[in-house]
Design brief:
With 387 residues, the protein is an alpha+beta fold. The chain folds into two domains: 236 residues, no CATH class; 104 residues, no CATH class. It is built from eleven helices and six strands.
Length: 387
């Protein structure tokens, strides 16, 4: 057997045997091929068609379309890491099996578990790379792609939410021995320029028996006194029988309201434009509002960001187990099996997401459901093959 000329950081690890080095070098070419193929397919289906349509409709220059396309590529590269590991392990071990190399190694007393170790080591390395790539590059690239497109359409995206800012504050109360969540305050602003909110309406039930409605032309956060300065507005005090108890008009009024609406407005990025640290900051703001639906959604997104890199390890185990099975698998069959496994994995991801958002599963279980199920299947196949 001749060792290929491809190099890997794993080959520098002391203690690797000749067999380990050989299998790893055999894994790298199909892995690189899978990265190129799955990234190209993903960006073509996910971005290219939509960009071409918008380029024709809006008359966007080709250079801008190319820039947005390049900025969209990291997202699909992140998804290509685990799928490429699956393809590499499945094709490599199937090729070694069809050439009777695995049979020769097993006749020398090498167990199945020892044979799949190089594939697992490579999967662990790619897991770390995927996590770093998904944290450091993907969110920034997604945000820049959005900003570039918005600027091209003369709709510059500010680093904050500029219209229709909603903030719902909840409170937990005891109702006949049962703890219930009720709406405490509803905050709405029509516009936000990064400093001043305009067109405000606040519905306030913070004090029992004293509900009020506050409308104002504008408002700013007073950093020195930690209050809101409202300008040119009206306060409607509501009596218990739902009639107006009093109406107070003002040109300047300070109100002790939470600053959370301002913080939420200043966090203008979408979920796929934030890394884990930024998502945790958003989570603190959402928890301050008491909205369990938003809290649950962002918790699922945070756990999914951690779970996705570990799909490389799961796919490495599944691909290695399938490749070591007694059935002979050619390249066409290997591609077909890879596509089927990938489809099942992402279908499970969608199911877990839906169950988590519907509160049927805890966020951590919803995010890790595909990994847990596929890991169980991969472990079962490996044990069955080893028997």
């Amino acid at each position: 057997m001749t060792v290929a000329k491809y190099k890997s950081p794993l080959l520098l690890i002391p203690g690797l045997s000749v067999m380990d080095r050989y299998i790893i070098t055999e894994l790298i070419p199909p892995f690189l091929f899978g990265m190129g193929m799955f990234s190209a397919v993903g960006v073509t289906i996910g971005s290219l068609f939509d960009l071409m349509r918008r380029a024709v409709d809006e008359g966007l220059p080709a250079t801008l379309v190319l820039k947005v396309l390049v900025l969209s590529l990291p997202q699909f590269i992140a998804y290509a890491f685990p799928t490429s590991i699956l393809l590499a392990t499945l094709l490599t071990y199937s090729r070694l099996s069809s050439d009777s190399e695995l049979t020769a190694l097993r006749s020398c007393g090498v167990s199945i578990y020892r044979l799949v170790l190089p594939g697992i080591l490579l999967s662990l390395l790619v897991t770390g790379l995927t996590f770093l790539f998904n944290e450091q590059i993907v969110p920034a690239a997604n945000y820049q792609a959005t900003v570039t497109m918005e600027r091209a359409l003369n709709e510059e995206k500010p680093p904050f939410k500029e219209r229709n800012i909603f903030y719902r504050e909840y409170d937990s109360v005891d109702q006949e021995g049962n703890k219930e969540t009720i709406l405490k305050r509803l905050f709405y602003a029509q516009q936000f320029d990064g400093e001043r909110m305009r067109g405000l309406t606040i519905l306030d039930w913070s004090q029992q028996g004293l509900n009020q409605i506050v409308t104002a032309e504008s408002a700013v956060w007073n950093f020195t006194q930690s209050t809101w300065d409202f300008f040119n507005g009206t306060i409607y005090l509501i009596a218990p029988d739902a009639s107006y108890r009093n109406i107070l008009r003002f040109t300047h009024q300070q109100l002790q309201l939470p600053r959370t609406p301002l913080d939420l407005a200043n966090k203008g990025r979408d979920y796929d434009e934030m890394n884990i640290a930024e998502s945790r900051e958003r989570l603190k703001l959402e928890r301050a509002s008491g909205d369990e639906d938003d809290v649950r959604k962002i918790l699922i997104r945070i756990h999914q960001r951690i779970a996705l890199p570990f799909a490389c390890l799961v796919f490495g185990l599944v691909g290695s187990a399938l490749g070591n099975s007694p059935q002979r698998t050619n390249k066409a069959t290997g591609f077909g099996v890879s596509v089927l496994v990938i489809f099942i994995y992402y279908m499970l991801m969608a199911v877990g997401d839906a169950l988590g958002l519907s509160n049927y599963l805890p966020p951590i279980v919803a995010a890790w459901l595909p990994n847990l199920l596929c890991l169980s299947v991969g472990g079962f196949l490996l044990v069955k093959t080893a028997q």
